[in-house]
Amino acid sequence: MTTKAIRGTFFDFTDDPWKHVGDEESSARFVSDGLLVIDDGIIVAFGDFDEVGPLYPDVSTTHIEHRIITPGFIDGHIHFPQTRVLGAFGLQLLPWLQKWVFPEEARYADREYARDGAVRFFDNILASGTTTVQAFTSTAPVCTEEFFEEATRRNMRVISGLTGIDQNAPDYFADTPESFYSNSTALIEKYHNVGRNLYAVTPRFAFGSSPEQMQKCEQLKAEHPDVWVNTHISENPHEIRGVLALHPECDDYLGVYEKYNLVGPKFSGGHAVWLSDDEFKRIHDSDASVTFCPHSNLFLGSGLFRLGKATDPDMRVRMSFGTDMGGGNRFGMLAVLDGAYKVGMINNTVLDGSIDPSRMNAAESERNKLSAFRAFYSITLGGAEGLYIDDKVGSFDIGKEADFVALDWKAGPPGSDWHAELIADGGDPVTVDDAANMLFGVMIVGDERAVAETWVMGEKAYQRADAVASTFARHFDPAL
Amino acid sequence: MTTKAIRGTFFDFTDDPWKHVGDEESSARFVSDGLLVIDDGIIVAFGDFDEVGPLYPDVSTTHIEHRIITPGFIDGHIHFPQTRVLGAFGLQLLPWLQKWVFPEEARYADREYARDGAVRFFDNILASGTTTVQAFTSTAPVCTEEFFEEATRRNMRVISGLTGIDQNAPDYFADTPESFYSNSTALIEKYHNVGRNLYAVTPRFAFGSSPEQMQKCEQLKAEHPDVWVNTHISENPHEIRGVLALHPECDDYLGVYEKYNLVGPKFSGGHAVWLSDDEFKRIHDSDASVTFCPHSNLFLGSGLFRLGKATDPDMRVRMSFGTDMGGGNRFGMLAVLDGAYKVGMINNTVLDGSIDPSRMNAAESERNKLSAFRAFYSITLGGAEGLYIDDKVGSFDIGKEADFVALDWKAGPPGSDWHAELIADGGDPVTVDDAANMLFGVMIVGDERAVAETWVMGEKAYQRADAVASTFARHFDPAL
């Protein structure tokens, strides 16, 4: 057993800040000088350095100074084989898939291409502070294999699965219900719960899976009840009409997944932009989950996720946030928080009653405001709860896996350094509010340049290059 | 006379790409191996290296390789004294001004603070590729003076003016009609058309100026007909109601500025989110201009600018794009293009008829799509036309001032390097479409890290630090 410790300033969550309106700091845990003790990648002690330190007098300790250490970020919805085609121009969901996505994803049937893509994919997410993803792959087993193989080499907690589509896709890309079933079965047996890998039965979306393929999903979940289920739901109005035309017996989009007994714990529906109140209620009642992907929803013109509705205390749904890279045009969760904040605020143009007083909803409007508490909760503990992995990751609780990020709140784009000096007189955070203000700056004024180090299972997996690590300097030199 | 030349790959515009639907490249000028010849900061020759080079056999030439050189970016709407408080949490326009903005702007009455702020402000915009701004200042003449003084030291083409507000502001910040008039007069005489400085009579917004202050604006413009007029218009529904309550004799927000004879050439109305069709028409008819500030409109929850409406060929309005830093949370125009693309796409969720077929408008929907051509036109030549400075800057036409940016399309956040290799086999752009695809990647997958060099009047004013200049490297090292 190898024991080590990290000393530094820690910030994580013990509860949902949406439950603490007006008192959000009570959901957070801020330890200005703390010690995190790790045995074989697992947290065995955590607390004030003065209290925990004496219990481990000889432990090898890394002191990470002038950083805020948070749990590693969790991306609930990302497409591994779209790594290269993120940010493709000009189309909404369905034609975008045909023109840009399927041709690129098809290349991941080639093992060498898939392996190269996997190295780049994990490089990119670690450099963005992300330590856990729930990822879509493609129809080719090779793509899913290389995803899990690279995740295994990095020892990362991931959820993924062969991504089935047997209709509304080009022939060269579509699979069949039979191939999807047999390949999924083999992949579950090879990867599920092996190391830190978790398997999700993954019908791409109801528009892409025939009733026969949906039946295979139901069968797989019945045969392997421990696996996850990951898919898309109600992303785009055209898509929704297409789904209901294909499944006329269902009243709404969620009804399709319900029909095949997929909706329940460990089910994630990505996007959920156009869910009715009744669908939100049924997701709540079944303890299923949705994923909010703001950049994608904006970039593809899908619509505005109702954050304040999803967090209604009477029917709070489990929720993770996701990049949805490549429908989303950024790799990291800090960028997602910038987009999520804006979606919440734009929702409030309506909900504050300033346009149509009859639509005023002050409580929902308040819940749309993505404070730093709500934001960082959503990409750590909240995301873990959304993905049913909060027993494993998402906070610094004893027994969890030691995935974390060291954030440098002064590093970022032009303007971020002076902005950061507004807080705590330019020094380290003294209070939980200092830390929250710095983290708000990181997500709104900053970007992934704030990610100084990313650690996985107690091992450093990414370190920002030194040169980039320096805060933004004044480049103007009249002598140039 | 000092003559010099820049050799490289150039991309600028000779026309409005919105006039060339389906054939946008005909609005652009792409010179894969070009020469830009500069005399005392002014462009005296431009074209293919093979044609122009022999005419200047002995000219001192800087060869900028593996970059796309565009005209310097033009920011039509930015608040100089908000440099430090960009990205402040949680409020819409009117309470945001009271809580965050007025206290910070008041500090710019202190000359030392204003001077430090000005150095930082210009450092930040140059590092973002911006060479021209139309800027708001504060009520203190010192703030405007220090802005123009620093712009003069940098020799930059700027538009600015004392920013008056005599109501709906705290006592410590408000000015009076009389002080606004006398201070504006002195500043016009001292700075307007001195060096590259241009003066704008700047009532902050109709909600903040009494009828008496508006009359002073009218008087200033009548006494100095050559000056610009810069203000805000129709940003937020609450604000609009406030304006109409203060000016009950006006039918709409634009009507207030019309009443005081301010609307015409050289008039810029920032935001213009909630303009009626009739107001757009009157702005078109009067040859006035609006500024699109997408990040601010999202960040403050103001609303969605109707890009496709503003570009209606039957009533096309002059238009610049702006950061609106600090209501916008990013300093640079490349970030603005990312936001502008998303606003256009989200507008189309309605205009494509997918929600309500009666609202379908295919032509307006098409105009909402911000291609790389439309995007880079809007922050160069289009912005210059919007600000009535297209005789001075915005393209590489002979006689214009040599402000330009060298863009490195492979540098940016995680993911941008591999994405860039999709185009031109990873090499330099060969065709105008290659260049446009690279520029789309810069604005959507990249950010201001693509700005390798910024030149002002033929002199290098910013160079990216070498370390940052390297393209994103794979940081994952199992040995770490």
Automatic annotation (TrEMBL), chains A, B:
Residues 68-427 form the Amidohydrolase-related domain. InterPro entries: Amidohydro-rel (IPR006680), Guanine_deaminase (IPR014311), Metal-dep_hydrolase_composite (IPR011059), Metal_Hydrolase (IPR032466), Metallo-dep_hydrolases (IPR051607). Its cofactor is Zn(2+). Its EC number is 3.5.4.3. Binds 1 zinc ion per subunit. SUPFAM superfamilies: Composite domain of metallo-dependent hydrolases, Metallo-dependent hydrolases. Keywords: Hydrolase, Metal-binding, Zinc. Pathway: Purine metabolism; guanine degradation; xanthine from guanine: step 1/1. Belongs to the metallo-dependent hydrolases superfamily. ATZ/TRZ family. This is Guanine deaminase. It comes from Subtercola frigoramans. The lineage of its organism: Bacteria, Bacillati, Actinomycetota, Actinomycetes, Micrococcales.
